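Chapter summary example.
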Amino acid sequence: MERTLWVCSNRFSSALERASIAVLCLSAVSFCGCSALRVGLGMREPLAKIDVASMSAKLPNGPGIAPGQKRALIAQFTEPNGKVLITEGKGGGKIMWKDLTVAGAVVDVNTKGIVSLRADPRYSDGKTGHVTITAPSHPNLRADLDIPFRYDVAFTANFSGTPGASGTSGMDGTNGTSGSSGSMDPNNPSPGGDGGNGTDGSDGGDGGPGGNAPNVLVRATVRPGNHPMLEVSVSAAGDERFFLIDTQGGSLLVKADGGAGGSGGRGGRGGSGGSGGMGTPSGNSGMSGHDGRNGFDGSPGKAGSIRVAYDPQVKPFLSVIHLSNKGGPGPTFQEEPVAELW
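The structure predicted for these 342 residues follows.
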């Protein structure tokens, strides 16, 4: 019976050890992202050791990208036997981006295959992005991908005030010490000592006030052509941002809200009273300290004003522009000639 229990215990311990090692390995991979470790565990495959017949690339969920957006590339490799391999990251495959060289024109591409386009539409207007992927281990492999630019998305120009800083949490009080033990010997009794009182927790700090939003000027005009496009400039406090908006599906939200006040810090918890010592009679327990007061939330900042100056041709498309300055003065609209912005 004892031998059976020992064998079962030994097997259970071995299973626990194997599980622990597996968890440690996975944790190490997640922590350091070590390519060699991933390859050793079979999670990644070196491209140099694979016979590849062809390579292609795509952007998931459609080929286009809008100003200010980032999209993940997926590269696909086909072996002579028809087996398909895919890159890590968005593709969820085993081919590592470090085994590839990616170059972008108009668009920017990092070493992880993430494509980004600058937020200013003047940089991309009238152009098409392009990405070229090559593999140093396979000089004959090459994938080219044109990336059209789209302007039928929801853009945001946020000039809202900054949020206030959160208050610091109060310090917890210390627990009281336990009372010393007396004697419960009926022939020689002695009282137990009283427990010490816990100290009070300190108050939480108040949250900081939110920042005020600046006054914002929006200028809008229509791009000449058969397909209505809006050129929009949003400026405030010396900062000007430009937007090109497709009126069929695109929009612009302009925000000049006051910053939210910072949240108050948590009050410290009072320390527990120490327990009375055992004895005849037993000592009294100490009193618990009072909890500290929670800090007050900071006051919100003030919203800025928003003025919209729009060309008469923009009037049918004003619903494309949305404004938010909660608690501030009502936005004003002024129809006036607005020339092309770039």
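To summarize the output: Residues 2-32 form the longest helix (31 residues).
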